[in-house]
């Protein structure tokens, strides 16, 4: 392992003066920068559990909502209380499992192809991700916002004006779409596994763990692509996944209208919160290129199946719930949820903006009215080259190392609260996000420690809290 002598420079810059504190530290170039290479037996077992349990959980939520008004415990209790559990399970599955529908399959694959065409051919700005562990700085086509508007305009015009479909089309084909999305999610996972071995896009950025299960789950290739620009990660997370998110919600709102004759204020608020989050994502798509999804995660089942199935089915669970259990919020409840949601959004956006602005100005900017405080770092890529970067340690980033997650958790909580307190299932999203983000803090710590070495330790001394100041 290379051990190199580096300098940590804590710099506070103003227009008129620069205060610089310098001290020498050893910076060890971490071999763990990027995804883990050496995985333990325990990790492999957990990976197997995720591979098996994730599809079962999606199916379970589908069955709970479709057959049991989204009462999460109901299917399990039916089996538990039956005299013969196995017979009860078989009966339940025969009755509730989604069935293959050629129409839904055509819908799904037309949607996927349409999104691919938009991604490939719409005019786009070119954005750049973070430098990869092998030293690549990859260009990305950023045109998601336009794709979102075109997709939604066609969906609305086709449903409201031309009568090509009912606006509830997605809701009406939910089971058939689930099967089609699963088929694609699995196909993509195995295709990427084989591609990584036979025709990788950037061979030096691959990571082989030695475990088939772990590689299948977490991916081998970092940035699988077709040609120069068709990036699997950006496309699958953004297009079939996140563009679909708001459209699914709208379709469920239409289904609620058909069912009860109006759209509840809870459904409207939920649509508003989700749409804000989604539009923010596309408006700031260039920023997304430098988040952990793109800068750290390899492309395996976790993202391939996750973007195709987990995201569209579980992130929209609340709107599914509200069709089955309409909730009329009182003005006070509406106001509280609105305030929590948009306070969360404000924090989420402001924190992420501070990181982006400080990186794009090389630290020469004001944060909360004061010159940005940064730790200037360097890191080495596997091609042996040294690169410079910086870590912001003032503003929100001086409060905790992941204050953006606090904003995200507040928005997520508000989204769940639109469903009232009768059932637990719609709260799945906040539970999942809490686990995901806490785990992410740990993953990010390992990555950044490997990448920045002693600079990261210096940063941890300056900003000791991970999430909530003085708490964690
Ligand atoms: P961040 O945007 O915080 O990115 C972390 C990376 O930023 C680090 O790996 C490091 O990368 C860099 N970094 C860390 N500390 C600093 C610092 N002090 N100054 C400058 N750069 C720093 O995290 P995520 O990518 O996880 O999340 C992005 C957003 O997306 C968050 O708001 C999160 O809540 C949200 N999110 C939403 C999810 C959802 O499913 N709804 C899932 C996950 C995230 P480097 O130095 O290599 O650039």
From TrEMBL:
Pathway: Steroid biosynthesis; cholesterol biosynthesis. It is a multi-pass membrane protein. It holds the Pfam family ERG4_ERG24. Keywords: Cholesterol biosynthesis, Cholesterol metabolism, Endoplasmic reticulum, Lipid biosynthesis, Lipid metabolism, Membrane, NADP, Oxidoreductase, Steroid biosynthesis, Steroid metabolism, Sterol biosynthesis, Sterol metabolism, Transmembrane, Transmembrane helix. GO terms for biological process: brassinosteroid biosynthetic process; cholesterol biosynthetic process. The chain crosses the membrane at residues 41-63, 103-122, 142-162, 174-194, 260-279, 329-348, 424-441. GO terms for molecular function: 7-dehydrocholesterol reductase activity. The keyword Iron-sulfur does not apply. InterPro entries: ERG24_DHCR-like, Sterol_reductase_CS. It is found in: Endoplasmic reticulum membrane. One of its GO terms (cellular component) is endoplasmic reticulum membrane. It catalyses: cholesterol + NADP(+) = 7-dehydrocholesterol + NADPH + H(+); 7-dehydrodesmosterol + NADPH + H(+) = desmosterol + NADP(+). Its EC number is 1.3.1.21. PANTHER family: 7-DEHYDROCHOLESTEROL REDUCTASE, DELTA(14)-STEROL REDUCTASE. Belongs to the ERG4/ERG24 family. This is 7-dehydrocholesterol reductase. It comes from Linnemannia schmuckeri. The lineage of its organism: Eukaryota, Fungi, Fungi incertae sedis, Mucoromycota, Mortierellomycotina.
């Amino acid at each position: 392992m290379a051990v190199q002598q580096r300098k940590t420079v804590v710099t506070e810059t103003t227009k008129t003066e620069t205060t610089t504190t310098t001290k020498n530290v050893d910076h060890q170039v971490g071999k763990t920068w990027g995804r883990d290479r050496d995985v333990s037996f325990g990790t492999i077992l957990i990976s197997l559990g995720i591979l098996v349990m994730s599809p079962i959980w999606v199916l379970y939520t589908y069955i709970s909502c479709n057959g049991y008004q989204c009462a999460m415990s109901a299917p399990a209790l039916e089996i538990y209380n039956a005299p013969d559990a196995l017979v009860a399970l078989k009966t339940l599955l025969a009755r509730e499992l989604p069935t293959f529908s050629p129409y839904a399959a055509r819908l799904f694959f037309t949607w996927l192809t349409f999104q691919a065409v938009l991604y490939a051919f719409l005019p786009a700005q070119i954005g750049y991700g973070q430098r990869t562990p092998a030293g690549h700085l990859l260009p990305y086509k950023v045109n998601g916002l336009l794709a979102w508007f075109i997709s939604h305009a066609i969906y609305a015009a086709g449903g409201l004006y031309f009568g090509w479909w009912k606006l509830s089309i997605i809701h009406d084909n939910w089971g058939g779409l689930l099967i089609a999305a699963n088929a694609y999610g699995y196909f993509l996972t195995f295709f990427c596994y084989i591609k990584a071995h036979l025709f990788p896009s950037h061979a030096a950025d691959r990571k082989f763990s030695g475990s088939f299960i772990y590689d299948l789950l977490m991916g081998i290739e970092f940035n699988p692509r077709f040609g120069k620009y068709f990036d699997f990660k950006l496309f699958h997370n953004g297009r079939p996944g996140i563009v679909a998110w708001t459209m699914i919600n709208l379709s469920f709102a239409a289904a609620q209208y058909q069912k009860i004759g109006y759209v509840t204020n809870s459904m409207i608020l939920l649509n508003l919160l989700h749409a804000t989050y989604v539009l923010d994502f596309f408006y700031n798509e260039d920023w997304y290129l430098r988040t952990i999804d793109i800068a750290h995660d390899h492309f395996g089942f976790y993202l391939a199946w996750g973007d195709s199935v987990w995201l569209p089915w579980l992130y929209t669970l609340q709107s599914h719930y509200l069709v089955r259990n309409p909730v009329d919020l009182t003005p006070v409840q509406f106001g509280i949820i609105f305030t929590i949601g948009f306070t969360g959004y404000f924090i989420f956006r402001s924190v992420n903006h501070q990181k982006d602005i400080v990186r794009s100005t090389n630290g020469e900017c004001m944060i909360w009215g004061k010159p940005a405080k940064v730790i200037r770092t360097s890191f080495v890529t596997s091609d042996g080259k040294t690169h410079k970067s910086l870590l912001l340690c003032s503003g929100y980033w001086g409060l905790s190392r992941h204050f953006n997650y606090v904003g995200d958790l507040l928005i997520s909580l508000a989204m769940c609260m639109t469903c009232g307190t009768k059932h637990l299932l719609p709260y799945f999203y906040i539970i999942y996000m809490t686990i995901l983000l806490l785990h992410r803090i740990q993953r990010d710590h390992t990555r950044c420690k490997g990448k920045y070495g002693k600079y990261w330790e210096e940063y941890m001394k300056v900003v000791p809290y991970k999430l909530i100041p003085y708490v964690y």
